[in-house]
Input
Amino acid sequence: MTAVIETEGLGKRYRTRWALAGCTLSIPAGHVVGLVGPNGAGKTTLINLATGMLAPSAGAIEVLGGRPAADSAQLARVGYLAQEAPVYAGFSIADHLRLGAHLNPGWDADMARRRIDRLDLDPRQKAGKLSGGQRAQLALTLAVAKRPELLILDEPVASLDPLARREFLQDLMETVAEHQVSVVLSSHLISDLERVCDYVIVLVDSRVRVAGPVDELLAAHHLLSGPRRDPASLPAGVEVVSASHTDVQTTLLARTSGPVLDPAWTVSELGLEDLVLAYMKQPATRSHPLEVLK
Amino acid sequence: MMWLTWRQFRAQAIAAAAALVAFAIVLALTESRMASMYNSSGLLTCHGGACSGLATAFLVQLSSGQGVSFLPVGANVYVMLYFLSVLIILVAPAIIGIFWGAPLIARELEAGTFRLTWNQSVTRTRWLTVKLALIGLAAMAVAEAFSLLQAWWAAPIGKAVGLGGGASIFSEGRFGWFVFPTHGITPIGYAAFAFALGVTAGLLVRRPIPAMAVTLAIFAAFQAFVPLWIRPNLFPTSQTTATIAASGANVSLRANPALTLIASIVPGRPGAWIISSEGVNAAGRPVGTVPAACESAISDTLGSHQGTTAGPDPAALNNCVARHGIRVAESYQPASHYWPLQLAETGFYLALALALAWYCFWRLNRRNS
Output
């Protein structure tokens, strides 16, 4: 299966600051990919590069095997819902659907109409009068009714209240299941995405910290607790993501290639949220060796 | 793309159409009266020298408002309409640049809707091509329509001025500062340039209101400096030297006792556009001072030439200066250069508009942010 997004040393610089650096990724098709990271980590920059709204300063990016926004055929294959879900305030909902129909050869008018009906929206209503959730739904309708192979959503739920969040994501998942579309969606909160994504990319300080299918990541990470000791003394093949210590006990979140056999450790499973939070908190440079009580 | 362009442009299009219709109605209501005044002025059947007198009489009648009592506005309705209509044609391109050009991209950038539109299955290049082509053509058509309507309405005035009618408020010739850029084909060039300028300003400034201000400032600067520095040089000027009387010049004096000769006629070249004139001696060298022998003809109100004026008898001063062999060197564009200059100026603005459009395409496809 080809990659939906493939990057090699991708970077974007604004004057002197790198908003994204050294990003090498290969996201396989058929996933719902959560792009997670704190605000300012470079998520929007990566999405802008993938949609061709920005040109890279370094490296290369291919989306569905082509250069982003290279031509109308490439544009037709990618649906994009930008942050804050921009729509034309002076256009009615029907105008937006007409816009979609006129600008997309693959426009699925039935699907668009059905979605608007299901959302109980009046097509004559001006988009400027919609609530945040309704606006996001309208923008999502435009993005999915062009029948893309890949749907890219930038912070789609950030401005929605909890109920609207749940409805939006539920609706999104139904659409994904119905139309077999790959999805990349970003959020600064993993809790937003935990239920929907099966692939996760953690982006911190303009760099990719970890990326992979959720089940593989969960299988490879363990929460270890045991007597206080220096994490550096762990055997090869165990990579510490985060460590916390009390006077007598050390708790580690570690990535291991195989099972942890040292009986000194109590091994427990962990959830996606803990895993992502550990990577988000991980300092950019390695910490100093811990002083161990003798 | 056509649909989207029309959907976003229709309010402005309707406003422009309404303005054009209102303009046409006002001119149509007043045109017949002016035409019948012209027809009864004797200018249709006059010959030779008689014409200029009749033409002046017609223009004076028009500007004084005699027999123009059918409108409550009163006497000088034609003067008012003439200048108002010319003013409208002068500012129409600026309005187009401000309200059609500047928001075109800036509004999308400010509202973020460019992310919506540029991610439909239409490239940015095509998006901009359709927008620039359709709205640009509309801009040129509207500006030229205003100009043609005014030219139709003001035809009697133009003919009377062409027949030598002077001494009136209407007597600016075809090359005049506000006549040349509002007649012929130049409005097309001005409109295209103003529109492209607005679009470019919007793309660079990224917010509609500041982009409008930038558009207005730059366009006004072009309107001011093109007649001064560009238009006279679009074609090589012709030179001639004539006597003071033949060139219709009067000696005038500025600061101590400089000699200034401003010609109003190029002998044998009716309707020429005089670009500059100066006094020269028999050898053709510029003369900057009044010959000493003519000082007696200057009325020196303050002494030491500080308050010099030409007079009390301008003719005596003119004759005295002429007797000393001083003639007037004129540089001018002959009347036959009217259409070549119109074409050249329109081409100049169209070239600028195309260059700006090209820059917008280039910038849009490598924009970073």
